[in-house]
Write a structure and sequence with these properties.
With 243 residues, this protein is of the alpha/beta class. It is 26% helix and 16% strand. The chain has six helices and ten strands.
C-alpha cells in the first residue's frame, strides 16, 4: 500500500514560480467535485488506510474554500493528513483551526528566499508569527526552487548535468500516489499532464488503481531502470538511484 496520497482539490495556485510546470501552462481554473473527493476518502477508510492524505498537487490548497471542510471530513473518517502550503494565506486564526484536525505534517514552502540567510530569517518570522512549532504536527520548512530538478523535462531553466536518456532506476512512485484535479491518477507528481495516467478516481476505486497491472508494470520497469518506456521518465532528473 502507498504511504501518501495527494488529491488535488482544485487546479489554481496564486503564484507563478519559474521552476514550476504550471507557470508555463494556461491551466483551467476548476475544482474537483466534492463527491469525488469524498468517494476516494471513503475508499481509503474502508481499507483502514493509516498513511497521510493531502489536497495539493500543483495548486495552493488555501485557494479552495473547502479546505477546512476536507480536513474535517478526514477527521470524521479517522484519516490523517499532511499539508503543503506557500504560506501566503496563513493567519493566526486558520493555523489554530488547522491544529484541531488530524494534520501530522505541516510543510511550508519558502521557495522565493533570496539566499540561505534570507530563508532562515523568513522561517523564523513565520514560526514566531504563527507559532507553527507549538502544535502537534511535524513542521517542515522547504528551501529551494531554482535548484530543483527539471520537472521531467518541462522546465529548462537550469543546465542539466546528466546524460540523456536517463537509465537509472527510480523510487519516486514506490510509496506515493498523486491525483490531478480532474481525477486522473498520474504516474508521479511530475506527470503534470497525466501522460502516464493509470486510472481515474471518478469511476474507479483508488485501491484497484494502485494494484492494477498498469501500475505494477510501471513499478517493475522503473526498478530495472527502463525509463525509455516512458516519455517523461527518460528525461527526468529526479529520484535517480543505482540499479
Amino acid at each position: 500500500m502507498f504511504e501518501r496520497i495527494s488529491i488535488e482539490c482544485n487546479s489554481y495556485c496564486n503564484r507563478f514560480c519559474s521552476f514550476c510546470t504550471r507557470t508555463y501552462d494556461n491551466r483551467e481554473k476548476v475544482r474537483m467535485p466534492t463527491e469525488t473527493i469524498y468517494k476516494t476518502l471513503n475508499e481509503l477508510r474502508e481499507v483502514n488506510f493509516t498513511g497521510l492524505i493531502s489536497f495539493h498537487f500543483y495548486n495552493e490548497v488555501f485557494t479552495d474554500k473547502r479546505i477546512f471542510e476536507l480536513f474535517e471530513k478526514c477527521q470524521e473518517l479517522g484519516l490523517n493528513n499532511y499539508l503543503v502550503t506557500n504560506g501566503d494565506f496563513l493567519t493566526a486564526e486558520n493555523v489554530e483551526r488547522l491544529s484541531q484536525y488530524n494534520i501530522k505534517e505541516f510543510t511550508l514552502s519558502l521557495y522565493d528566499s533570496v539566499n540561505r540567510d534570507d530563508f532562515e530569517k523568513r522561517s523564523k518570522e513565520y514560526i514566531d508569527k504563527f507559532k507553527l512549532d507549538q502544535y502537534g504536527w511535524e513542521l517542515i520548512i522547504l528551501y529551494g526552487g531554482e535548484d530543483f530538478t527539471n520537472r521531467a523535462g518541462y522546465v529548462q531553466h537550469t543546465e542539466e548535468k546528466y546524460e540523456l536518456p536517463v537509465k537509472a532506476a527510480c523510487s519516486k512512485i514506490v510509496k506515493k500516489i498523486d491525483v490531478r484535479y480532474d481525477g486522473e491518477v498520474v504516474m508521479c507528481c511530475l506527470d503534470y499532464y497525466g501522460q502516464h495516467s493509470i486510472g481515474n478516481i471518478a469511476d474507479e476505486n483508488i485501491i484497484d488503481i494502485w494494484y492494477s497491472d498498469k501500475r505494477r508494470n510501471q513499478l517493475n520497469d522503473l526498478s530495472q531502470g527502463h525509463r525509455y518506456k516512458y516519455k517523461l521518465c527518460s528525461g527526468c532528473s529526479d529520484y535517480m538511484v543505482e540499479i
